Amino acid sequence: MNILAVVVSAAVTLLVSGAYYAALGSRLAQLSPAYAGPRRPAPVTAVVELVRGGIVAAAIAFLVAGLGIGGLGQAVGLALVLWFAFPAVLLAGSVFHERVPVALATIHAGDWLLKLVLITGIVTIWS
């Protein structure tokens, strides 16, 4: 596992995800009171998201190495499998069981798709 690739992919996803949610901020505020009220301090959010991203990136780097993923096509394929198996399934459950608005779950699903493709691509290129 390439630790630098894990760190870089966590940082890249922090920036991309931040831009993604910033672009959708007004829509998020309409869909959930969690986004309409005061936000947590940016440094705290950055640290939390870097840790979360690093954990996901390390797990994906482990899978990429273990499965012998060797090209971007295979990396995107793995990212899609992971996205369908985890975020998409979990978010669908939140829509069904907790009545989370479909639009809100779709926004989060898009964020996770971006993250997984970016992380898997970066750790594959650097492995």
TrEMBL record:
The chain crosses the membrane at residues 50-69, 76-96, 102-126. Keywords: Membrane, Transmembrane, Transmembrane helix. Pfam families: DUF1761 (PF08570). InterPro entries: DUF1761. This is Uncharacterized protein DUF1761.
